[in-house]
Structure formats: C-alpha cells, structure tokens
C-alpha cells in the first residue's frame, strides 16, 4: 500500500508551501544517496520523498492528490492537468467517461452509483500590517460557506419525516438508457443523483440539506509571511454532498505598505535625512527598528548622498529558515532651500577655503556642493 505523501514528509494536511519546503530539505539532506552510499533503504526513501514533494509543492497536483490520492496523479482519479473540481479546474474526467466504464465493468471503482461531489473551495483575502507579518499573528477570517442545515441535520427533510428511496432510480442515483449499440447511464434527474427524495422538505433549506452561513475561521499567520502568500485550511470550504469531504479554504495574505520600511525579501530598507553639516562632520543616528527597539548607527564624516548602512538581524524573520534579515539604512543628504544672510556668509567663507585648498579649481565646476557630495545629485 502506498504511503501517504503527508506522512512521508512529516507535515499536516494543511501544511503551507514553506512548511513543505522546510520538511523536504531536512529529509532530502538526511536520505541523500551521497550521504548513504550503498544503503538501498535510504535510496528508496529519498526517491519517495522527492515524489511526495513534487506532487504537494504543485498546487494543482496537490489538489488532485487530496481528492483522489496517488492514483489520481497517475490518471486514475481525474488528475490530468486542466481537469478537476478545485479552483481553476474544469471538466471532471470521471463525468465524461464514467458512464461507459460503469456499464462495461459494473460500476467498478467503488463509486456505488451516487455522484456526490466534494464541497467547493473558498478563496479569501486578508490584510495584515507589517508589524504583524514580522511577529506572526492569529487573525479572524470571516467567510460565507455552505454547511449542513442545522434545522434538519442535513437530511433535507422536515422534522418528523425522513428522505425516501427515489422510485425513479430505486436508490442507485443512476438511470439506464440505450444509445445505438451502447447501454449507458446518467445521474437520475428525479433525485439529482442522490438516490433519495424528500416529500416533506425542511423549511429552512427547502429540502437541499444545506444552508449558507456566515462563519469566522481563525488562522495563524507565521512570522515572516510574504505579501501574496496563500495559506490553506483543510476542510474550511463548502460542505459537499452526503458522505463527502468539504472543500478547502484558501487565504491570500496581503501585507499592507508601511510608511517607514520597504521590504526587500527578508531585508527592510528605510531612509534617513541628514543636513549638510551632519554629512560633512559625521553624526550618530538613533532609529526605531520594526521590533520597536531603538538602535544606534554611527555615520562617518564625509558620507555621500545615497550611502547605505547595514544593521544586522533587524529585518524580517526568515520564513523558510532561522534568523532574520537586515535593516538597510539609506542616507539622504538634504540641501537647504532657503538660507539666512548669516548662513550664506558662512557657506561662502567655507567655499572660499575649499577653493584655496583646491588651488582655485573647485569654484568653476560645482564649488562647495560638488566638494561635499562628490558630484552626485
């Protein structure tokens, strides 16, 4: 019997892409053939781990695997690319060819006649602040989902009554018909393929057995999450037909822009302004990092406009590993737009000393500010 891919990687069924990658890297390193030369058991384990990760790291393949298992990836469960019942899916292959196969092989494959489908998936977006993405946070996700009717318990029948076997298909959910030389079957139109009908429908759900309800799911957003990352909540989607699994909830994380920091992978970039005196003489700056702690950086004399200073381990947590990124501090030197008479006199005197030091050459092609900024804008 094939081993479950999630068990192979040692992750839960709702594992994120990052958790899958982290688990795979650890196991691949442990069972790599180069580290286990001559060990056939390790080699076989390495092959299985690769197969599991290849399937689960691809969202489309993962959805097929979750619905049909390993057989679905080999073409036995409607797992061909472009088909399937999940987001972006199209036609169910079993619906296209299942009727013919059932007639030839007597319903082999354990379908049992009924065509109850897995519940639909739900996709939602939530916004988090950069500080929340830094620290990790548990957030509520309000969703509208289809669930079993609370009044009738999902039966669709009014209290005191129960569904009855469909007289049209006699409870099989399928009806036979002939077309040329072929005897074929299709879902029963009287019961919708369920095999049973409701004479006294529930007033709440009108006999469907399901109702739409506003719910709130709470998800844990890991520290270091990226903008656009998608988290999957297994079973958090719409309820399916009787005896089927519910769909999944896919939550897209949107990290709101922060006026103080710009993110560059795991690094954070911020800008600080210096006046021309601070740039020329040097100074010490005190900044507040994303974690709220104050950090001091020393700016050397003669720093140029656009220079970048690195503060180690003051960036975002690494989602796929240990440690944190860095804080990159970009210097912007401000040139005063309005000067007092006193300031003008002092700068002219300063410019005069620079010209004298430069042998009279600096004044004609940039003067004081070229000397300070090295010709940069």
User: Uncertain regions: pLDDT < 50 for 5+ in a row?
Assistant: 76-115, 362-368, 371-377
Our Rg estimate from Cα atoms comes to: 33 Å
* Series of secondary-structure elements, N-terminal to C-terminal: HHHHHHEHEEEEEEEEEEHEEEEHH
Neighbour order of strands in the largest sheet: 10-11-15-14
Please give the number of β-strands: 15
For the biggest sheet, the summary is: 4 strands, mixed
Task: Bin the strand percentage.
Answer: 15-25%
Please work out how many helical segments DSSP would assign.
10
How far apart lie the N and C ends?
69 Å
Q: Residue share in helices?
A: 25-40%
Principal-axes geometry comes out as elongated
Class from secondary-structure proportions: alpha+beta
Task: Estimate the mean pLDDT confidence.
Answer: 77
Concise structural overview:
The protein is an alpha+beta fold. It has helices at 5-9, 17-31, 40-56, 59-68, 70-73, 93-105, 130-135, 276-281, 341-357, 367-373; strands at 122-128, 137-148, 164-165, 174-179, 182-187, 196-197, 210-221, 230-233, 249-255, 262-264, 267-275, 283-288, 294-299, 308-311, 327-334.
Describe the fold and architecture:
By secondary structure, this protein is an alpha+beta fold. The protein has 10 helices and 15 strands. A 4-stranded mixed beta sheet has the order 10-11-15-14. Strands 1-9-8 form a 3-stranded mixed beta sheet. A hairpin with a 2-residue loop joins strand 4 (174-179) and strand 5. The protein is elongated. Mean pLDDT is 77; it is low at 76-115, 362-368 and 371-377.
